[in-house]
Hints:
Strand content: 25-35%
Number of helices: 8
Helix content: 25-40%
Radius of gyration: 46 Å
Shape: rod-shaped
Structural class: alpha+beta
Amino acid sequence: xxxxxxxxxxxxxxxxxxxxxxxxxxxxxxxxxxxxxxxxxxxxxxxxxxxxxxxxxxxxxxxxxxxxxxxxxxxxxxxxxxxxxxxxxxxxxxxxxxxxxxxxxxxxxxxxxxxxxxxxxxxxxxxxxxxxxxxxxxxxxxxxxxxxxxxxxxxxxxxxxxxxxxxxxxxxxxxxxxxxxxxxxxxxxxxxxxxxxxxxxxxxxxxxxxxxxxxxxxxxxxxxxxxxxxxxxxxxxxxxxxxxxxxxxxxxxxxxxxxxxxxxxxxxxxxxxxxxxxxxxxxxxxxxxxxxxxxxxxxxxxxxxxxxxxxxxxxxxxxxxxxxxxxxxxxxxxxxxxxxxxxxxxxxxxxxxxxxxxxxxxxxxxxxxxxxxxxxxxxxxxxxxxxxxxxxxxxxxxxxxxxxxxxxxxxxxxxxxxxxxxxxxxxxxxxxxxxxxxxxxxxxxxxxxxxxxxxxxxxxxxxxxxxxxxxxxxxxxxxxxxxxxxxxxxxxxxxxxxxxxxxxxxxxxxx
Length: 511
């Protein structure tokens, strides 16, 4: 233990069953037990022997039993005094002891093992303490590294939030500009329904007054009437205009009813298509950093949009695509599956009522395959070489589902916080308007089977600093090669139609 000459216990290390209160008694009684002008360095306290040495205002004591070897005990205390002096300095005080209590405890532990003395020298103890110090430095370095990594992630998150806010501001600004443009255009287009508007009412004061007894005197609120014996004239609606039912005004509810009737009844413009068909396919997947696919899916729908509200039952004659072995198809219950096997898309019953001016899903399908190699549209290879990243995308000519792609883009959103340059972009182009890299491949097919890009950074990068990346594409060449020959009503009238095809991918990642 280490105590003051006044009997205050500062530090102790216990290797036996002695209670802490007894150590305090040792420290308190030691100054009274010391004999002045005596060369003895030990004192007796009951059944215990206290061997002590002064250290510049402090007392270093070893507590043993009476039958221990006093010569070895004195040598142990002397050796420990040198070690304590080297740890806490030549002039120890309470502050220096508290600051170095860990090293003192380790030194005591190296000196004593299971109440027995270890045959160890000061040099060996110093070496052990140095090793412990190195371990502490390594721990502190690791802790500092974790703190720096946490701060870096916090800064990246802050930059990401700032970037998101800027993008939202840009989108909001563009939407406001689009609204303004639409309003400007709408002000320039003549309203065909203006011909239906009533002429302005004349004031009572503008109508010549007569004093014929057969006429009713006019009041301040002029009213329109219907002359007996004549029918009111009906106005013929103009194509593209809304039919209006004139009801007497005078209440807020009546005006609301007129507006609702105008909005509900829309006259179909015969110049437009009566039926629109949309083949909408969505592709998704995930590519590992090794270039192999971990997920790939393709799902599609054939949407039906009826523009003419007076069109009820009709047949859509298409090429027979129901027998394709790689496409699993499903038809809604209200459509005839028997005729669909022959390529005819039609409601099951003539009494089937389909929603008008609403997109209706008629056929759902999915691409089925045995292995990724026979179905994936393209392959991606990634090479890391220190501060450089090379990426190549290749059209998969082993598959027979996709003919090609247009507007294939890869969004490297994780690069917004890095400094980099693009040194090469083969069969492709790029832009960094959004602070991150967008790699665009205009065409990827058998004629242009590959494209590549090389990105140079200032220092070495890892895969985690570049990926994940998002893949997006749009194309008018879907897997389902649907062709519509005609659309015919029950009476045999051919209906004007349109067919749109689109293949898109949003949920596609390199990760």
